[in-house]
Amino acid sequence: MNVVIVGGNIAGLRCAELLSNENINVEVFEKGNKGLYKICAAGYTKEAMNELLLPDYLIERDNKYVIGETRFGLLKIKKRIYMLSRPALHEYQWDVACDAGANVHEKSQVVDIDIKENTIELDDSTRVRYDYLIGADGSNSIVRKKLNLPFDNQLVLQYRVPEVVTKTVQMWFPEPYYYTYTFPHDTYTYIGCGIGKDHKKLKKYLEGRCKELNIDTSDLKLEAFPINLNYSGMKFKNIYLVGDAVGFASRLTGEGISQALTSARLSVSSIFGENEKYETGLSKMVEQMRRESQPYFDTYNKVFK
Which CATH superfamily is domain 2-304 in? Predict the structure, then answer.
């Protein structure tokens, strides 16, 4: 059996590790480098940490709760968030996948997929055959495009502030479907706003939050990243979508790392023929996504408590 994984980030490398542990031949093609910097707030829930079983040295800060502010007032949310360096995590997962036996290729971009012939084409014109294909290539997934599935890419904006601004994770919900966040790491803080397609509105809320925190943004670089919120299925015969490519991220909070890891585990279960485990896990994911697709004031009690 030969499994090709397009995209070597959190979900793709997790798939590679799990498959390689069972002596499956795995080829991962990542267009970036090992230790790549992916724009995100890099906060990890307890569920994500339990999935990966990461060593303590990767944790930059352990936040035991979240302060949330809505039109109902302040909330102390019992949700533990761990802060990690995304490049350090990427290097760690890369090494774990390789140690398990996966062949992980950097600077290798997939430019075409022939679904009928079960082959992919790389940017150097090399063709690779697969028995199973896993699309772990993010919100603009070429695998998803080849499956002719729609996208719903929403935008998140953020600044990386070179100081610790707050002691705890903070989230503020100014209106339905919009939020700002403050994610403190060891020596820096991510302050961002999501999730929508109105760049001006996102920027207004982000700048407003920074002003409240006395942050001068004039010399800071504005970062932006898309989150795909369209779920149109995960399994398509011998092709799977995982991570941002499948569309399981939370519309309520933008959180998608735990979902990415779960989708990786479910896809591997299906490849191994563990259909009941796959179907049960998939149903739970779809239900969670449905609950978190509603405006915050209808769901925050169920999601956070």
Answer: FAD/NAD(P)-binding domain (3.50.50.60)
